[in-house]
Design a protein that fits this description.
Elements: H1 4-27, H2 36-42
Length: about 70
């Protein structure tokens, strides 16, 4: 029973820290834009790298024909 004298203040202290951390995160703008970071993975830049000569690299979907 005497453990409650330790656990109740400890629980209230942790609750107070969690409430403070939530309001700090809201105040610093952590929840302002929830969609853009997820879309940045999907909208990857898939352009082909350029050769040093400035010409576009051959596309892998177009096979070369040797004559």
């Amino acid at each position: 029973m005497s453990i409650l004298f330790l656990l109740i203040p400890l629980g209230l202290l942790l609750l107070g820290f969690a409430v403070w951390a939530f309001f700090w995160a809201v105040g610093t703008g952590q929840f302002d834009d929830l969609d853009t970071p997820a879309w940045s993975v999907v909208m990857d830049d898939d352009s082909a790298p350029k050769n040093p000569g400035g010409q576009q690299a051959d596309s892998p979907s177009e096979p070369k024909v040797s004559e």
